[in-house]
Fold:
Amino acid sequence: MSRIAVIGAGAWGTALAIVLGRKGTHHGPHHVRLWANELEVCESIARNRINEHFLPGFILPESIEATSDLSAAVDAAEIVVSVMPSQHCRALFERMAPALRPEILFVSCTKGLENGTLLRMTEVIGDVLRSRKFTARMAALSGPSFAKEVARGDPTAVTVASVDGEVTRAVQQAFNDSRFRVYTNDDVIGVELGGALKNIIAIAAGVCDGLGLGHNSVAALITRGLAEVARLVVACGGRLDTMAGLAGLGDLVLTCTGDLSRNRSVGVELGKGRKLPDIIAGMRGAVAEGVFTTKAAVGLARKKNVEMPITEQMFAILENGKSPHQAIEDLMTRAARSEI
Structure:
């Protein structure tokens, strides 16, 4: 039996807790503590074993204990799974740091970049924990995985990446079961950037839908979106072949085409002419990471001198209120060039 803390009880964190809670070993099931920032989430789970606020309709196994006490959540944990929104990662790890130990395995499942520093989430975690005088044993988990489908038990495949093979194997063993298949990878940069940057392209795909454009437009967007994501991944030291895998193409296609995608849904509403603050206000606390990641992605691309035209246009829409019609026009009238 492993003692696992899941930090973040949104839809994705709750779904991962369900995966871990239903998975047993020959010694018994994992013991999972799910930390929620919202007291009403803990009360809902304690009352009826359901996270009514973020993932209604799915029963949490009895092996999951919900808590709003961060120190209690990580107490004696062997694995800490971080699933908080990217903009809260640093602050939460600074709060947790006094209770964390060098032997803990850390699994980052947050798909985003930190604004200002432009750091990936494992870099943020490592930065915080180095101040505690230890180097964290870390992995990043990503791939095409809508929370509702994972919670329902639909067959799902993801990838977990670490520079330490022992860590990837341990995380694979902790999560892998007949409905949640975990592959391993050693390209942390590619896996994390693929997971973060695809959200921006997904907002753009939603914009196409909101504008009433057809399948041609979305197919072109996904293909060229993958090309610019891959350019930045390689410039940052990641591998091109990772972009052909679950954390690259797999997650990109899912998030750009699936109706459960929060990022795509934001894009749909932007395409219909709604303003971003109104869209976010209607999301009931759910987070579309692409909204926060776009600014950091533009900064990282400029730092690495990488051309990312779709990302630049999404930045103009999200940050400067540019018309989606004009953004599409500007993308289509760029200077003609070779595809490769």
Notes: The chain has two domains: 3-186, 189-332. The two ends are 50 Å apart (CA to CA). The chain has a mean pLDDT of 95.
